[in-house]
Every structure is written in structure tokens, then in C-alpha cells.
TrEMBL record:
InterPro entries: BphY/WalK/GraS-like, HAMP_dom, HATPase_C_sf, HATPase_dom, His_kinase_dom, HisK_dim/P_dom, HisK_dim/P_sf, PAS. Its EC number is 2.7.13.3. Pfam families: HATPase_c (PF02518), HisKA (PF00512), PAS (PF00989), sCache_like (PF16736). SMART domains: HAMP, HATPase_c, HisKA, PAS. One of its GO terms (cellular component) is plasma membrane. This is histidine kinase. Residues 240-323 form the PAS domain.
Length: 586
């Protein structure tokens, strides 16, 4: 594309050339006419001198022809003497043919002009004539002739002078024009280039601002102000867009935006993870082709027909699971009540449903666990009131049962209170450095009797006496008692329970292993749930509350530790605890 500066310069040059050509032609014609007039005036003066000479020296017949020839040579002109009858008496230029037709016109009186020219042999010859008189009578005519070569040379010089002058003027005007156009067109070109860059979206483009504040300077300044404003607006828009996209992508719920024609125009990461497809497979396609859930498609169809907000809960298949979702479908209404589309929001409430179910199970389990000892105590109390108190043996037996059930009820309540305390946010461990050796010996002394009664071998593998860690010694003791008690309870007579303590770098690893009934693989993830029992009859008969492993898990996690389980049904189980030696206070 031709630059504005070039176009302006070309226009100025063309205009200048046209003006100079017209001026040159006008000056040429004026100078030509001026020179021609001067030329004929010269012929007229020379003719007057010759006429006076001829008249003074004997007229046409008496004048000396040699002198006339000399005059002609000096004047560079031809001399013709013609009598009144048109006869040529003298011709100083014999090589130039005589203009007989002009002589005839002069003699006959038909040509009143004193000067004229004729084209002879492709050569212009200019003539000037005058009358020769003797007294008052016309004796003849004197004609002076001059070939046009002199005029042509003069004209050529005139045109060369005009051309050179006008060419020099053109060169000066072009140079000045280039400088002027560069000065005034450069800011305009720069502003145009910046405007084009702004149109392309490059808001960092700037134009050169001259020190002299004129119209072009104001234009450049205005363009720069516009560019800065656009750049600020673009930055603000991009920042808002980034924030909006970050919010949409990380909102935690699945979002789907459907336009007024039913095509999906936006999805976020939550929905991509939900349906496990690429955005290219969903975007700008009709919702009824790409949304895999029939219930959701029907919900969208209903909102398109009613334009009313919808909210429902669905169980949707996600990968190999079935999850609960609270789905909200919101109509998008623009200004002037223009229908824009539908926004779908999927809230995953699976965990809430699980917590709700756990709460229900907890209430049911607590009610059941409390009901059993209370019913037993009530039944034996009523039996005693009805007369069994008189039987000393029955009285002692019933009171023992009531005491046993009361102890069980007390343990259940204590475990519930302990579990509630561990789950509180303000629960704090009493952390201090301690040695594991005295704790293990104390626990061994407490449980040896129970193990001996069941004919179970309770083995503690040797470990360094100075094995120390940071933590809550009371809670660590509670964990080990619960695990070892469970191992003894679920190990048949003649079995073995092992306790080992090892140091592994910055961790302490404690293992409780038994040869008991074991745990089925599908039950392992649930054994830390409250009131969950692998063998309910055995657990209840042993006096367990079903809360021991839940308490163990909370204490281990409070110490920033980890608990894993290895078990084979009929072969036994192993609980492995990993505690950091240096614990943070919680």
C-alpha cells in the first residue's frame, strides 16, 4: 500500500509540474512574441536605413549594387529591389527563391502588412517591405528577408533557459515538498500505523509525539492517550476474565452453560472430571447429544419449556461409583427479558449423604448398645422385686449380672465421651518426650492375666530400652491397650499375640500381630467405623463397645501418624502403627 507521505508528495509534484508547464508555455510564448517583435523592429529600422541610403544615393537605378551587397552581408539579411511593375531589379541572396506571390500582392496593393513570413523549401523566411519614393512618387519596393534559422536558434535558447529555470525550480520545490511532507505526514502515518495496531489488539503501540504542539501533535497525543486507556481497559478485562475463569474452574461444583439454541457453550473442570471427556467433544454441540444422563436432559427440556428454576437430587453413575448430586438448573434472562440460556450446577453431596447415613447408623447403634444393658438390668431388677431376692443364690447371681451390665454401660458411655472429645476441634495432646519401655511393661502386666486365662501366648519382642518418642504417653498407652485387647479377644485358645517396636529413621514403628480369626478384605476399610464389629457376638460377649478402633485411629492421626492393617481370614491380623519421633503439638 502506498504511504500517505508518498501520495501527498506525488500530488504536490504533479500539481507543481502542471503549474510549471503552464507557466513555461506562457513565458515561452511571451518571450517568443517579444523576440519576434524585436526582430521585426530591427528589420523595420534596417529597412528605413537602407531606404534612406537608396533614396540619397540615386534611387533604385543609381545605387551601388556592391554596397547593397555589403549592407546585406553585415545585416545578415537578403535585400530585394522590386520596381512598381513587380520586376526584381536586385537580389542579394540568389540562393533563396523570390516570393513572387508576395511581390504581386505588394505591387497590386493587396497586402497592407509590412511584415510576414513564407515557408520556402521547408524553411521559414521572414520579410519586411517598404516603399522607395522619389519625391512623392513610388519608385519601387525594398524587401528585407531573413531565414528562420536565427529565430530557431533564439527560440531554442529561450526554451533552454525556461526549461533549466523551471527544472531547477521543480527540484527545489520537490526537495522542499519532501521535507514538508515528511514533517507533516510522518505524525499522520505514525498515528495511522498505531491505529492499525490498536485495531489488531496491540494496545502497547505508541506514536511519536513532537515537541511542537500543533494539529499533528494533538493527533499523536490523542492516539497515545487512547492507546493507554485501551491498554488499561484490556488489562482490567483480562484480569477480570482470569479471575472469572479461575472461579469457574475451581468453584468445586460442576458447571454447564447452555445457550438459547440448546448448545453447550461452557463447561468447567468439575464437569469434565464428572463425565471424563474432552471439552472439544462437548462444546458447541446440542445438550441432548452430549449429556449422558437422561434425568438431566429431561430437567433441561422442562426448564426450556417453563423458564422456571429447577432443583432436584439425583444418583448418577460416575466411573465405577454412584454418587449423589444436588442439581440446580437456572434460566438466564437478559435485558428486556431476552432468553439467554440455562446454567446447570452440579453439587456433589455424596459425602453429606454418607455423613447423614453415618449419623443415622450411629444413633441406631448407640440406641442398640444402650438398650441391651439397660434391658438386662431392668429385667433382672424386676425379677428380684418379684421375689427372687429371697433366694440368696439367685440374688447374688442377678446382682453380679446387673453389675456386669452396669460396667458395660459405663464403658460404653466413657468411650462415647472419649470419642467425642477426640473429634472436637479444640482437642489438644499433652505432648512430651517419653520412653516406650515402661509403657509396654505396664500394659503387659495388665493383659497377661487375660491372655493366660485364654491360653494365649503374649510375646513382646525385645527392643532398645532407650527407645523414645515425642507424644502423649497416656494416649499411646490407650492405643496399645485397645489393640492388644482386641487381639486377645479375637484370638482363639492356644493362639499367639505379638508386640514389636522398631526405629525406622525418623519414625517409630509399632506392630501388634495375632493368630486370630482375621478380617475379610472387604471389611478392612470399615473396621475403624464406630460400632462396627467383625464378629458381633464375640465382641459383645467380650465386653467390647465397638468404639475401640475408632478411638485408636483418631489418636494415631492426632499424632500425625499412620495406621495400616494386614489380615488374612483364619490366619490372623497385623496392625502397624507409624509415629514420628518428633511430634508437633496439636
Amino acid at each position: 500500500m502506498t504511504k500517505y507521505r508518498t501520495r501527498l508528495l506525488i500530488a504536490m509534484v504533479l500539481l507543481t509540474v502542471a503549474v510549471l508547464l503552464a507557466l513555461g508555455i506562457l513565458l515561452g510564448q511571451l518571450l517568443k512574441n517579444y523576440y519576434l517583435d524585436s526582430y521585426y523592429e530591427r528589420l523595420e529600422n534596417e529597412s528605413s536605413l537602407l531606404r534612406m541610403y537608396i533614396e540619397d544615393y540615386g534611387g533604385m537605378l543609381g545605387v551601388d549594387r556592391n554596397e547593397l551587397g555589403k549592407f546585406g552581408d553585415k545585416l545578415g539579411a537578403g535585400i530585394l529591389l522590386v520596381d512598381v511593375d513587380g520586376a526584381i531589379l536586385y537580389n542579394s541572396k540568389n540562393n533563396i527563391s523570390t516570393p513572387e506571390d508576395l511581390i504581386t500582392d505588394i505591387v497590386s496593393g493587396g497586402n497592407k502588412k509590412k511584415r510576414f513570413f513564407k515557408l520556402k523549401d521547408r524553411q521559414e523566411v521572414h520579410y519586411y517591405w517598404t516603399e522607395l519614393k522619389v519625391g512623392n512618387d513610388t519608385e519601387g519596393y525594398l524587401l528585407l528577408s531573413l531565414a528562420s534559422s536565427q529565430l530557431k536558434d533564439a527560440y531554442k535558447n529561450i526554451w533552454w533557459f525556461i526549461s533549466l529555470t523551471l527544472g531547477l525550480a521543480l527540484a527545489i520545490i520537490v526537495l522542499l515538498g519532501m521535507r514538508i511532507t515528511r514533517k507533516y505526514a510522518k505524525p499522520i502515518e505514525s498515528a495511522a500505523n498505531v491505529a492499525m495496531e490498536l485495531a489488531k489488539g496491540n494496545y502497547r503501540a505508541r506514536t511519536y509525539v513532537e515537541e511542537n504542539i500543533d494539529e499533528t501533535g494533538l493527533l499523536s497525543t490523542s492516539i497515545n492517550v487512547l492507546a493507554r486507556n485501551l491498554e488499561d481497559m484490556a488489562k482490567t478485562r483480562d484480569m477480570q476474565q482470569e479471575r472469572l475463569m479461575a472461579l469457574i474452574e475451581n468453584i468445586g461444583s460442576a458447571l454447564v452453560l447452555i445457550d438459547s439454541r440448546g448448545n453447550i457453550s461452557l463447561i468447567n473442570r468439575g464437569y469434565r472430571d464428572l463425565v471424563e471427556v474432552e471439552p472439544a467433544d462437548l462444546l458447541y454441540r446440542p445438550y441432548f447429544e452430549v449429556i449422558p444422563f437422561r434425568e438431566i436432559r429431561e430437567m433441561i427440556e422442562e426448564i426450556f419449556m417453563t423458564e422456571q428454576e429447577q432443583r432436584r437430587q439425583f444418583i448418577l453413575p460416575v466411573s465405577i461409583e454412584r454418587k449423589y448430586f444436588d442439581v440446580s438448573a437456572l434460566p438466564i434472562i437478559g435485558t428486556n427479558n431476552v432468553w439467554k440460556g440455562v446454567l446447570l450446577v452440579f453439587h456433589d453431596i455424596t459425602e453429606l449423604k454418607k455423613l447423614e447415613q453415618m449419623r443415622k447408623d450411629f444413633v441406631a447403634n448407640v440406641s442398640h448398645e444402650l438398650k441391651t444393658p439397660v434391658t438386662s438390668i431392668k429385667g433382672f431388677a424386676e425379677t428380684l422385686i418379684d421375689g427372687a431376692m429371697r433366694d440368696e443364690k439367685a440374688l447374688q447371681e442377678f446382682l453380679s449380672i446387673i453389675l456386669k451390665e452396669s460396667d458395660r454401660l459405663q464403658r460404653l458411655i466413657q468411650d462415647l465421651l472419649e470419642l467425642s472429645k477426640l473429634e472436637q476441634h479444640n482437642f489438644v495432646l499433652d505432648i512430651s518426650p517419653f520412653s516406650l519401655d515402661p509403657i509396654v511393661k505396664e500394659i503387659l502386666a495388665i493383659l497377661e492375666g487375660r491372655a493366660f486365662q485364654k491360653n494365649i501366648s503374649l510375646v513382646v519382642h525385645p527392643f532398645p530400652v532407650k527407645t523414645e518418642m515425642e507424644g502423649d504417653p497416656f494416649r499411646i498407652r490407650q492405643v496399645l491397650i485397645n489393640l492388644l485387647s482386641n487381639a486377645i479377644n479375637y484370638t482363639p485358645s492356644g493362639g499367639k499375640v505379638e508386640l514389636s517396636v522398631q526405629e525406622a529413621g525418623s519414625d517409630i514403628v509399632i506392630s501388634v500381630k495375632d493368630t486370630g480369626i482375621g478380617i475379610e478384605e472387604d471389611e478392612v476399610p470399615r473396621i475403624f467405623e464406630r460400632f462396627y464389629r467383625v464378629d458381633r457376638a464375640r465382641s459383645r460377649n467380650s465386653g467390647g463397645t465397638g468404639l475401640g478402633l475408632a478411638i485408636v485411629k483418631h489418636i494415631v492421626e492426632a499424632h500425625r501418624g499412620k495406621i495400616t492393617v494386614k489380615s488374612r481370614p483364619g490366619k490372623g491380623s497385623e496392625f502397624i502403627l507409624e509415629f514420628p519421633k518428633r511430634a508437633r503439638k496439636v
